[in-house]
Amino acid sequence: MWTIIHKMGSPPWFFRFSGTLVRWLLPITIALLLVGAVWGLLVAPPDFRQGNSYRIIYIHVPAAVVALAGYYVMALAGAVSLIWRIKMADITMRAAAPVGAVLTAIALVTGAIWGKPTWGAWWVWDARITSMLILFFLYLGVVALFEAYENKTAAARACAVLSLVGTVNIPIIYKSVDWWYSLHQPASLKLTGESAIDSSMLYPLLLMILAFYCLFALTVLLNMRAELVWAHRESSWLKQLAGGA
Amino acid sequence: MYFESLSAMWHMDGHGIYVWLAYALTAIPLALTVWLPIKRIRQHWRWLEAEQRRVAPAASRTVNEAGV
Questions:
Q1: A201 within domain boundaries
Q2: CB atoms within 10 A of CB B49
Q3: What is the pTM of this model?
Q4: Nearest by CB to B52, which of A63, A99, A243?
Q5: Could you list the residue range(s) of the whole structural domain that residue A91 is in?
Q6: In this structure, is residue A213 part of a structural domain?
Q7: Is residue A241 a part of any domain in this protein?
Q8: How far is CA A77 from the centre of its chain?
């Protein structure tokens, strides 16, 4: 376990390892997304109350679930970089931020589109939706804060602190539908007990959630590789790789 | 397959515009988040390879010159 963590901190090892991982993850992610989308759009039955508009669930819920989980990844990486000053953790944190922002934006936009035929409004200042909007600004804040500093060590530290403070928002998002009176429906998926969703709709949803997790891992790895190639352009290990040696 | 025809699939009993719009507005940014870092890696990699080619012949030349 510790040797793996130790290796993760080594850019040359990580670069080779992530290269292999990306080559597998890219086709797997595309296949999962295509199968899940076709299943959700064309094969699954319509909802008896919402009709076909509910098919947005197959992108809305996975995007929101992974946007929330992604925040933990970012904040955890931020904590590691803050405590142990590990450069790779800092790179992980910054690679996760734009992906999280895109996923949160997708959850908000698809939610608005779903809201129109279901609630009759594109947007309501509801607890769940507002706390998701704050999540979006937190992700953007990490991206913007890093760019705002001239000194990149200080920038990384400030980003880590911001992402850690922002974790307060995550349980609020989870619990918002229970704590406040909300238009947003409560969770249909439960880790414990029976899910409030039929298996013909549940399986494509679980598949899409898996697909979005793969997509998150893939894009974070790609962002990290892009960062590493540029940051280590003067390092001998990368020159050797590029030189074909 | 739930829908009986292509037009039924497109229309989705009046909800088609919402559903297809939501999927399009998901697919485009997701494709970009995958493609943009790949493009960046390729650009940097080509630059690195060009650097190596520029440096490597120069290194062998000094060896030859020293040999002569």
A1: yes
A2: 15
A3: 0.90
A4: A243
A5: 14-187+195-236
A6: yes
A7: no
A8: 14
